[in-house]
Write a structure and sequence with these properties.
It contains seven helices and four strands. The chain is mainly α. It is elongated.
Length: 198
């Protein structure tokens, strides 16, 4: 009976890992996995695994949220090393291996520089209007449920309209504006990128 429970928990680790791999961003993969591990298969019987997993989650949240630095990555590697050596079960050791694999990727290094190469971490991206492409059709503003897009819809026989603009403090990065723009004038960029000059 106990062995069948262990088998289900072992399988769940693999299921969480597979689901995590569906995310393009490596930091998001690691965060998704560790959250799933904490919710399900982690038994909490050994200190290095239970405490390490909670601390790893905190460090991953910092990195995904744009607040992470070299100290967070170093702590993540140290935590995973301790888990790999001292965890009493395969689930904890596998989790440590997964963390070490993710932490060694270019995606993690990019996040420490303030960039998410896959443009999935909301704290590190912005939606912007490309001024030269905007035709003032107003479809983006109509699609935005959060009223984050400012501008005036073009009227026939009048000119002098500035292009639409996305207010970053109101933008929740839902992406509703992207598919409705017929000119492809809305782009997702690194938040640290300088706005293009008209």
């Amino acid at each position: 009976m106990a062995s069948s429970v262990d088998e289900r928990k072992e399988q769940k680790v693999e299921d969480i890992r597979a689901a995590a791999q569906s995310k393009a961003c490596q930091v998001r993969q690691a965060l998704y996995y560790i959250e799933g591990f904490l919710e399900g298969p982690m038994c909490g019987r050994c200190f290095p695994c239970s405490m390490g997993s909670f601390e790893a989650k905190r460090r991953l949240e910092n990195i995904a949220g744009g607040r992470g630095g070299g100290a967070d990555l170093a702590a993540l590697v140290r935590i995973a090393g301790n888990m790999l050596e001292a965890s009493m079960c395969r689930k904890g050791k596998d989790t440590a291996r997964f963390i070490l694999e993710w932490a060694a990727t270019d995606g993690f290094r990019a996040h420490l520089e303030g960039r998410c190469p896959e443009k999935q971490c909301e704290a590190l991206i912005e939606y912007r209007v490309v001024l030269e492409k905007c035709t003032n059709c107003g479809l983006c503003a109509e699609a935005c449920r959060h009223r984050a897009i400012l501008g005036e819809k073009r009227k026939p026989f009048l000119s002098g309209y500035p292009p639409f603009e996305i207010r970053q403090k109101r933008c929740v990065k839902c992406g509703d504006c992207l598919p409705v723009c017929p000119e492809g004038a809305i782009v997702v960029v690194d938040a640290s990128a300088q706005p293009e000059k008209a």
